[in-house]
Amino acid sequence: xxxxxxxxxxxxxxxxxxxxxxxxxxxxxxxxxxxxxxxxxxxxxxxxxxxxxxxxxxxxxxxxxxxxxxxxxxxxxxxxxxxxxxxxxxxxxxxxxxxxxxxxxxxxxxxxxxxxxxxxxxxxxxxxxxxxxxxxxxxxxxxxxxxxxxxxxxxxxxxxxxxxxxxxxxxxxxxxxxxxxxxxxxxxxxxxxxxxxxx
Length: 199
Description:
CATH architecture: Clam
Mean pLDDT: 86
Number of strands: 12
Structural class: alpha+beta
Family: Belongs to the LolA family.
InterPro entries: LolA/LolB/LppX (IPR029046), OM_lipoprot_carrier_LolA-like (IPR004564), OM_lipoprot_carrier_LolA_Pbac (IPR018323)
Subunit structure: Monomer.
Strand content: over 45%
Number of domains: 1
Shape: globular
Protein name: Outer-membrane lipoprotein carrier protein
CATH class: Mainly Beta
GO cellular component, one term: outer membrane-bounded periplasmic space
């Protein structure tokens, strides 16, 4: 009876471990990819408050591009050392140390395989969908979900600390090689640069 009780107590831990390992196996086959996305944003009462569209590209271990083309243009580029957040309408770009910026989001696990990044989250699995929840209660992200269709990522979702949920349906998913230039940002002439990297 005691062994049964111990086994039951360990089940949640085993489930989390299996979910993490299963997600890692899925991502091992996706060292680089790009896709277009349709975005829907819902408030805490599940009311649709915004829609958008754009594209994303990732290449492990630390290259990332997120471009919103509607309703307003914005661009985020991670080049391995810095993260550039460009707002064309404002003609401004903010620059952050990549370790500082990427540590704030579970999207880290899509591009990095180091244990330190993965250990910051608890994982669960629902069929072909995986949830990652930060262990840090002060995180501004409550949960990230990633769902697969075969070997491709079909959708992503992020819920923030205000219970605002952003859902991204991915299309034209491709694992073709990505050019290095895709992950290099050069500020257009006249752009105001706010460098937050410090010394």
